[in-house]
Fold Ornithine carbamoyltransferase.
Amino acid sequence: MLRGRDLLSLMEFKPDEVIMLLEMSKSLKARYHAGEIIVPIHAGKTAILIFEKPSTRTRVSTSVAAYQLGMNVIVTSAQELQLGRGETVADTARTLSRYVHVIAARVYSHSSLEELAQYADVPVINLLSDKFHPLQALADALTLWEKKGKLSGLKVAFVGDVGNNVAASLAVIGSKLGWEVRLIGPRQLWRNDISKLSDDADKTGASIYQSDSLEDVKGVDAVYTDVWVSMGFEKEAEERVRLLRPYQVDGRVMSLAGPQALFMHCLPAHRGQEVTDDVIDGPRSVVWDQAENRLHTAKAALAALTP
């Protein structure tokens, strides 16, 4: 069982545990669409959601997910807590553990989550950090499972800022599920932590590699991109846009990938930068399915981890 476990990156979960979360997500989604909106698995329990960064999909989907599990939901920012006046993360974690059953947080620094998890007596769930975005990766995997009819053996190309948190989590979940993940972007942004995924990749048959050639989108099941200037990198915006301009996902890139390739984006999108309108609004785009699946995977994570 997963009850009581933290979810910080998905690296801490075994492949069969990731599959368990996805199967639960699929089941809860089916129940939702059958009209079973409230599944009171955790009736009367309380979840606190802490947001250091602005959010649309994560904030709303996780709030709704907790509510639909029968939970009381507290949504707050660091500024509304004593964190904003200098209380330590450790003291905040100890205090909140006396009040709530699960803590979920969207933070600037992944180290803040690690400290929360170290000192909290209840599970801590990563709603996004500078290093990982695990709930997004679960939603991505659920979407591909629905569209391609399988969980393993998929080929996915992430094009653009291959050093960001979404690319990292895509590589992590790909290593758990036996995918071929192609991280395609400028060498200046290549990752130096790919080797950490080798143990899972050896077990599942996954392949995670980096390239600076758009030719490597050929034959993939999906082309994925994200914004070029993530929150916290605004000072580097001009340089990042210059560096990443050749990696815009447009009709040419999708044609190169092939007619079987879906288009994916975690949103929000900066239309005209990382993706063109004809692609994101086109018939192969599954971005709204990804967005919906944030609800069902958040619900599964809360259901499975909350004690």
User: Anything to note?
Assistant: The longest strand covers residues 46-51.
